[in-house]
Design a protein that fits this description.
Shape: elongated
Order of helices and strands: HEEEEEEEEEEEEE
Strand content: over 45%
Number of strands: 13
Number of helices: 1
Largest sheet: 8 strands, antiparallel, barrel
Length: 233
Amino acid sequence: MQKLLFFIINVFVVIVSYSQNAVSDSLVYDDPKYREDQFYLALTYNFMENKPNGMSQQGLSSGLHLGFIRDIPINQKRTLAIGVGFGYSNNSYNHNLLIREVEDDLTYELLSTTIDTYSKNKFNTHEVAFPIQFRWRNSTIESHKFWRIYLGAKINYIFHSVVKHKGDVGNFKLRNPNSVQRFQPVIDLGFGWNTWNFYASYSLNTLFKNSAKVEGVAINTRAVKFGLIFYIF
């Protein structure tokens, strides 16, 4: 994960350096109330980092993220700002970790594709998000085609989660297992030009509490997400 953070920092530095060279020092805004208030929509691939030995992801694990960011400029040219907002996320994780309730206790075991037959084994979360960002852009009032870099953090709260399984052990849904870490603080980065913007986030909390173990080993899995984010004015 140190390599990921190093990559993000280097991308930030390179894009800022390039974009600053493209911005005229004479840029002045006619409207002192100009802001970049935005709705956002992001589509991500969800990767489970630091999985226990034998645990794997199967199929597509995806995320849908949407919300609103209030823009608070902090310099005269209004190219720097703080963003605060509110949002919602729906995340799915397809994997071979079977989570089920046996005699009122949660159990965790790894499914084998050669022994266990199943068509679905999914963990799904619904979350509210409270983002805060440090924002840089070289936008103007006349054009929304500009470079942007939004570096920030979110406090995500899982208000509902579901385990869905269809297979040899039965067909069932397990709602809100108590081993889920409901608070999911993340660091994230959005950068790009015009419509197309890359998005990445890394969870600072594990998806499950220390009580969740498979073969005696804690499931210290974290969510890493990569995808595209669209900002809508």
